Every structure is written in C-alpha cells, then in structure tokens.
Amino acid sequence: MKINRRKRAIQFTGIGLVALATIAAATVPAVADEKSDQSRKGSAQNVILLVGDGMGDFELSAARNYSVGAAGRLKLDALPERSTVTTYSVQESDPSAPNYVPDSAATSTAWSTGVKTSNGRIGTTAGTDEDIPTTMELAKEAGLLIGNVSTARITDATPAGAMAHVAKRGCEGPVQTSASCAADAVENGGPGSIAEQSINLGVDVLLGGGADRYDQTIAGGPYAGKTVTDSAKDRGYSVLRNAADLSTAKQLPALGLFGGGHLPTELVGPQAAPGGVAATCTPNPAFTADVPTLEAMTRSAIGLLSSAESASKQGENGKEDRNEDNRDERKAAGFFLQVEGASIDKQDHAANPCAQIGETIAFDRAVQVALDFAKKDGNTTVIVTADHSHTSQIIPATDKDSLGATATLTTADGQPMKLSYGTSPTAGSQDHTGSTVPYLSYGPANVRVPSLLDHTDIFGIVNKALGLS
Amino acid sequence: MKINRRKRAIQFTGIGLVALATIAAATVPAVADEKSDQSRKGSAQNVILLVGDGMGDFELSAARNYSVGAAGRLKLDALPERSTVTTYSVQESDPSAPNYVPDSAATSTAWSTGVKTSNGRIGTTAGTDEDIPTTMELAKEAGLLIGNVSTARITDATPAGAMAHVAKRGCEGPVQTSASCAADAVENGGPGSIAEQSINLGVDVLLGGGADRYDQTIAGGPYAGKTVTDSAKDRGYSVLRNAADLSTAKQLPALGLFGGGHLPTELVGPQAAPGGVAATCTPNPAFTADVPTLEAMTRSAIGLLSSAESASKQGENGKEDRNEDNRDERKAAGFFLQVEGASIDKQDHAANPCAQIGETIAFDRAVQVALDFAKKDGNTTVIVTADHSHTSQIIPATDKDSLGATATLTTADGQPMKLSYGTSPTAGSQDHTGSTVPYLSYGPANVRVPSLLDHTDIFGIVNKALGLS
Q: A114-146: buried (b, 16+ CB within 10 Å) or exposed (e) per residue?
C-alpha cells in the first residue's frame, strides 16, 4: 500500500483554514443526545456512509410524492438527526477561491479527506496535485475493514474519492491513465489508475459497475501485462460477475463487477421535453436478474464485512470480545462502508424523471438495509448525505410556460406532479446546482451536529465515530 | 371578537388524518435536549415564528454566498435545531388530494391552524369554507399578547393566515371583500376583510405595509362609514406611519402602516435575462429613512410586547413574578409574534436576484434580533421556517446554455455566482416550487423535532411552547 506517493503538503490557507475550523467544531459537538449516554464513552465500531449522488431536497421531495405520496415518509426520513451541508469546491487556479457548483470528484474528496479540491480531482490538492489521505486509507491502516459500493462504475468519481489519488477523475483504468494522467501511470512510477489503486489499497469489498476499467491491461510494475481484474485475483480477490455470484459470496476480499459501465437504472420512462410530456414509469428491461440492486449490494457488503469482523474478533481473542473499554481490539474489528446511489445524478443530467426517481427509491431501500443492520448491531452509525444539488424542480401541475423541459407523472396520491429541467437544453446535460444538501444520521452515539455542516466536516465526524481520531 | 362565524366542521379524513397524526408525533418528541433539563417542566413563555417567504435552500445558499461567502454563516445558521418541512396544500375540489406546489395562503393557514387548505384560502377549510381557529386567536383567548409583522401589506397572505378567515386571499380590505368575498363582508353579516378582522381580533402589534387596505371605508356594522384605520383608533390603537413613529412607540395596541402596499426592498439590481446579465446590487432609493427595516420592526414589536408583558405581570401580582410553577400567570403574560420576510418570494417571482438576496439578508437580521432577545430573556422559543420553495437556482458560472433567465453577481468571496430563473418567461411571474423547506429553532426547552415535519406540525409545536395545549 502506497498512500502518499509525494510529500503531503496541504496548504491550510484561506478556505482551508475555515474548513479546518469547521472540522474541529463538528468533531466536538456542543450538545449530545440524552439517549447516547450509555455509548458515549466508546466510539462507534462501524460507519456506513450512504451518498445519493445529486440528491438534493427537490429530488427527495419528488421521490417521496411519487412513491409514498406527499404525506408519506421515505425510509431515510426515519433517521433522527438532520443537518444540511455546504458543497462548494475550490478553483484549480486559486484554491482559496470557491466554486459554487461542485462535481462529485471534488465533493467526494472533501468528505473523504477533509480538504476541498477543484472539480475533477480525486484525492489530490487543487493547484499542487498532492495526495491527501482518505478515511478509507486511515481505516485500513488502523486495521478496520473497508468497503465501497456504487451503482456507477466503482471507479467513478464518488467511490473513487474515497480510495484513490489521481489528477483527473477520468483516469479510471490503465488506458485512460496512460493517456490523461501520465504522472499517475504505473509505467511512469505512479500509483496507477483508480481501478489499480482500489486493489493496491486492498479495499475489502468493491461492488458496482466498471468491468471495462478493471479488464484493461496494466502497463507497468509487478502486474504489467495482466488486467486489473487478474491482478486482483492474484492478490486473493474473489471476482463476482452477477447477482447469483454476489448472493453466494462468502469471503473477503471481493471484487463485484456487475456491468461494463454504470449499472442500468431500475425504472425507465420518457425524457422531459419542451412543452411537456406525460410520463409513465416502467421497469427497465435491461435491469435483469443478473444485476444486483443497490439494496442487495449493500446487504451483501454489510454481511461480508460484519462476518469477517466477527471472525477477526474471535480469531484474535479466542472468543468474541465486545468489552467497551478494549478500544484497540474494537478498532481492529470495525468497518467503514461507503454506498453510492449514483444514477439519481446521471438521470437528472438526462432530464429523465422516471429513472431519477426510481434510483432515489432504490437508494432509499439501501438506506433501510443499513438502518436495519445498525439497529440490530447497536454499534453502527449510519450517515446519509448527497454530493451536490441538481436541476429538477417540482412546479405547478397547471404550469404552461416553464422555460425548462417538463414531464408530468402520476404519484402514489393519484395526482399529477410536474417536474421541470431547465439548466440546459434537453439534448444537453442538465447542470449540477449549488444549494446545500441534506445530512441525516442515526447511531448508537447519535452525536448532534451543528445545523449547518460543510462536506469537509464529515471527514471528522466519520473518523471520530470509527475511533480514528 | 368573533372567531367562528360558522359552525366549525373540519373533516379529518384522508390527508387531514395524517396531518393530525403528525401533529401528535411532533408535540410529544421522542428525544429532548440535555441542555433543556432545567426548563423542561414549564412551557416557554414566548414564541417568535419567523417566516422567510419563498426561502428555500437555494435562496439561503445564494444569500450566504453573496453576503458572507461560501464558508461564511448567516445569522440563522446559528439556530441549533434543524428539520425540514413538507409544504403541500390540498385541492379545493377534493381536500383529500394534495397539491404539490402550495401558495402562502394555504401554508400560513396550515401552520396557523394545523389544517391544510387549498391555495388562496385564509383560515378556512378547502371545499367547505369553514373557519379554523388559529394559534394567534387561541393565544389571545388565553390572555397572551400577539403580534404580526411583515415587509408586505400586513393583510397579505402570510400574515393574514395567522389572524383572519376569508375564502380568498385577495379580500384584504373592505372594497375587495365586498367585490370578491360577499359572504365575508360586514354588510352581509360576515366578519369583514382581513384588515377589519385584524383589528376585531385585537392583534396587539401590527407592523408592515398595506395602508391602502386599512384606509378603505367599512361598509356595514358598528364602524360603517369609517376607515379601518379610524376604527382601529376608536378601539385604542396608536397608528404609526413611519420609522420615527415606530421608534418612539410606547404602548399597545399599535398599528404600523409604513407604506400603501408592500414595503420597498432594501436592494435593487437588474432582472435576470435570457443569455445572462451581470448584476451589481445597489441600495434602493425608495427605501428611505421613513421606512423601517424588518430588523427595526421586529425589535420594536418584541420591545412593545415584552414591555407590556412585564407591566401586565407587575400589575397582576404587585411585583414581578417569574415563579416557574405559576403557570396561569405565566400564560397570561407571554406573547406570540409572527414575523415575515415577504419579498424574498416577491423578488424570486420577479427574477430579480439582488432584491431577492437583499430581502433574505434583511430577514436574517430580523432573526438575529429575535435570537438576541431569546438568549437574554431565557424563556423564548425562536422558530425560523419558510412557506414554500421557489424558482432560483445557483448554476455553474461557466454555464452558457441555461434555458432560464440568468444573472451573475459578484459575491463576498469576490467570485461570480450565477442564478437561473426558468419556471416562467422573464416577463411573467416565476413559479413557486414544491420542495421541502428549512426549519430551524432555538429555545430554552430546545425541543427536538423529527427530521421531517409538515407545516401542520408547527401548529402543535408553537401551541405547546406557548402553553396552549
């Protein structure tokens, strides 16, 4: 494992200083929960961080109306602690200056490292291209198990920010890295593509799409001439290719690649259009039984990580040891899992309300899996957030002059809901937007957080819960 | 005072039942704050409810970036408890069916009465036009002082929903009521216009615009032939006409009418336009020294209500009595104040980012006044929320193909922030939207609330804090 390929030289100036101050504030909350008295002494053993990509309040409101009605509740609405999160990134040419509309690379880097970077960067500093240690790396170093799950390519920006360091988010496989991130390429002495780095780090569970990236051939170093997938097998990884493989997986490390690119969405329907369309959402034929749901991937990842955790504890101690004061052993046996619902964002870009809402509902089911585990386990913190807000807006059903492309869906209430997409022409890609996004949490030490957080604060909150700080 | 002009017959079916259930959930929070131990036995004496009209997370994010920078904090960000609120209204033709994009009349009615109604209605039921008691009326009946402050006409929908009952929000003065709300008109045996009802109820402090409505002539009943303003004077009201009057006001009841219609915005600038404009925000020349700021109106209202409260307590007891267990006297001396920042919404409708942001900042200053009082007083709860989300979005500064009208402002960071308005053509009125909106609170019994509320829940939360339930 080679975390810092270059001298770490993060400049805590300007925005950096503010970010650091807000981390400190968040990790020492002024107010703690009555309920948490009994578990306040120890840190939580496990953390599951679930990220809805592009899941702002509009996307959640649309999914709520559609799936359970305006007075209904999503699964994630049950998480008791709420805050809201500023998402801005910084500028490559001047890292002290904010960029009000971030991308997933910069935001994932922010919560994974505590440091803001510029759009497109993965785990590296704006302007200076230095690697910044991530929670997943710190957890691995401390002996915790780590997992990364996404409905996108598992090398896509949001999962990548948790486990890799490249100058450009596109450098997902060896081919792209040779072409676009020469300094990162293994043949030039670099740490390799995002796919290579995920295996080098030894992420214990990797589940998602992106087989096309892992099946590329490594161009240098000890695995030269092999695919990333084969190099993973050499290092003990089970490679899973479909839902059946996943359901029978029993051991770590596991690399599940369930599609060449991003996984298909669960629902499909018409794209919003100028003047409006009536949209009926239907199951996606491409979402076959071979493709695991995000819910299934989350359940399997938790199962594999928590079973291994138990095995590890039994192995170390001869018997299970849940002594609260035995901090070193608890640290060694916990896990950190990141789960991304990726295509809320991708379908918002595409102005496709059915697919966007279907992926929000799919993400919500994964939250329920995490919450069920945490409640049963008693020692797991669940955090739900988003990387940035997006384009979709709920406008009056009677609206006739929206400048955006619109689509009208019939909700669980049996009523029309009109969504508008207006940040780009329908033929283009709708834009990310710059609002704060939701933050929700549940945990045994249900630590209260300030009512406004920044993404960089999540780094401190997660590390503290894992016992890393 | 004539609250129920007709038999109260609220139908608790469909959505009504759900709303009632969520009120129950909200008024018996599962988790309370450690800090609140000492004050948990008694209810808070005073409640200040501040409503940013149209103030969704986008509007707050834009105001934050503009005024204090992306890493800065608004005054309202300091309120420790956060939730988010569903805002939907119901349909006039079928009150069991939601309308996903509400107006201010329906939402103000919802938090003021605990019952959802249809867009355009003030304190009356959808379909059946029955009056529904409001918190302000219940507070008055219990002997508390009540106040209502807005930068709009004080008869506009948001303040109106707290204190009046008419079938149509436009029935603000006697003339409109005769024309459009015949059943409500005094000459037909009704309770009169919103302006008349505000005086009949005896709202102790009324501050805002709307002199044009109050200066209309009453067409029936005991004050026939007089203006509403003169009828108020007959009943002991001091009438204030400018900031100087306000600053020297010493007694209740007080009717402050600081403009004929809505009060002017603090900032002005260019309207967003297709293809984009560069917007520099400047002070509004119409916002003269005669016009009080929302901050000044809030400070005066609190001053008048809290001084009268002290006088009342001293009068009743011979000396000040703050015995925590003396509940009846505490109830008799408390106050409920609603404060609206109205033109965040009105300038979002107008696609005018400078005025919209200026009014958000002005609202934020009023929140600080309420928070400062509550911290000093030790027995006041402050709640900040919004009635509905709106159109404005922060999009990438580099965007070139937004379908909406756009404007680029230079923020406190010295960086460009681009806002887009795309729910209607620029020449029209931009639409309300249907996202959840922020909820923030501070109080001596800083009661935790579920992470998702409905507007109707606020009715229960406020009444409980006032000791009315």
A: bbbbbbbbbbbbbbebbbbbbbbbbbbebebbb
